[in-house]
Structures are given as structure tokens and as C-alpha cells.
Design goal:
By secondary structure, the protein is an alpha/beta fold. The chain is built from 5 helices and 9 strands; from the N terminus they run βββαβαβββαβαβα.
Length: 210
């Protein structure tokens, strides 16, 4: 298989329960809830995405012929640091491309593998950490994992149903748009009213990281 990667770089994980960890960040190209083109945004299921996942022209991106080549590139980015290497697979929608050979190749290089998905496709069973970020209006089939991260506010979200899903952690993250201040307060109010949830902040944006 040829993997289409928008970008891949070394950074600190900026959000969620893994925030602050040194990580290789691998963003796959493509998504099943939006084409990534502005002319299609109004008709998309997910209309608030602020991520460029179109093409393979980002730093460290490209088309990788086979899982071994992609895993080797990820390990080269990690370098010689001590400890088990950690990689975050995201997108777009990573489950459009994640497959058995890639998981095996990353594990063979001792990577701990985390993934963030919109949950509309089943997560690979051998991932080490599964984060699902549901989008209102989509059919969520992956209702279990390590963390559920709900971007807020998001009209149409069935929060009561989500609270019955099987996740270790329930997180609310303020939507980053022109109403950021109001969204921050809405997320705080959400957690104050529903203590099962915790506030997740995009620390990488405050720190100037990617």
C-alpha cells in the first residue's frame, strides 16, 4: 500500500490526556467528513475543521511506498532519545489508511501508537491509545477507547448518549474559531455542569508549537 501523508514532524503532543509528551506527529491526507476544500465546507458533515489535510506537501509529508518505509521515516524523526518512541496518527481521518502492515511495522520499531479519529470507522484493535473526537451529524461506530474528546460547542451532539460509551476519559475542548472567548466559557460551563468530563486545552497553540 502507498500511504498519503500530509505532514510528519517531531513535537510535543498538545492536547488530551497525552499532552506534553514528546511525539512524532503523523497527519494522513484525506477525510471522510469533508474534502478539505473551502468550496465544500458548507455542505460537509464537519464544518469547523481548521486543519489542512489536503495533499502530501507538508513538512515530512509525501507518498510512502509501504509500511516499512513510513515506519523508518517516523523512527528517523524520533532520533536517539531514550525511552519508548511515541507516535500520534491523525488526519484528516487516519483510519482511512491505517492497516495491519503499518501497525506491525511501527510496533516492530517499538513505537507506542496513539490515534485520533472521528469514530466513523472502527479503530484498529492493536492501537495502544485511541482518542475519538465525534462530529455532530456523523454516525459514530467506535464507541470505546481511551479518551473521548468532544469539541465544544457543537450543536446536535448527543452528550447523554456519549456518557454511556466506554471510554477511560471524557474530555471537552473549546472550539477554536472567531468566538474563542465565548467557546472557552461554554466549555468551562459544560464541565462545571457535568463533572464526568474534564477540560482539554490546546496547549501547543499557547506555546507556539505545531
Amino acid at each position: 500500500m502507498t500511504y498519503a501523508v500530509k505532514e510528519m514532524f517531531l513535537t510535543l503532543q498538545g492536547e488530551g490526556m497525552q499532552a506534553g509528551r514528546r511525539a512524532v506527529f503523523l497527519r494522513f491526507a484525506g477525510c471522510n467528513l469533508w474534502s478539505g476544500r473551502e468550496q465544500d465546507r458548507a455542505e460537509a458533515v464537519c464544518r469547523f475543521c481548521d486543519t489542512d489535510f489536503v495533499g502530501t506537501d507538508g513538512d515530512g509529508g509525501g507518498k510512502f511506498s509501504g509500511a516499512e518505509a513510513l515506519a523508518d521515516a517516523a523512527l528517523k524523526l524520533w532520533g536517539d532519545a531514550e525511552g519508548r518512541p511515541f507516535i500520534v496518527l491523525t488526519g484528516g481521518e487516519p483510519m482511512l489508511q491505517i492497516d495491519d502492515p503499518l501497525i506491525r511495522a511501527l510496533h516492530a520499531r517499538q513505537f507506542e501508537i496513539a490515534m485520533e479519529s472521528n469514530g466513523t470507522l472502527p479503530a484498529h484493535p492493536d492501537l495502544d491509545w485511541v482518542c475519538i473526537s465525534p462530529k455532530a451529524g456523523s454516525e459514530i461506530v467506535q464507541r470505546s477507547g481511551n479518551e473521548l474528546k468532544l469539541v465544544w460547542p457543537q450543536p446536535g451532539s448527543n452528550v447523554e448518549a456519549m456518557e454511556n460509551w466506554t471510554f477511560d476519559h471524557f474530555l471537552v475542548q473549546p472550539l477554536d474559531d472567531e468566538n474563542a472567548a465565548a467557546n472557552h466559557q461554554a466549555a468551562i460551563d459544560f464541565v462545571m455542569a457535568r463533572p464526568k468530563w474534564r477540560l482539554s486545552v490546546q496547549t501547543h497553540k499557547y506555546l507556539g508549537l505545531r
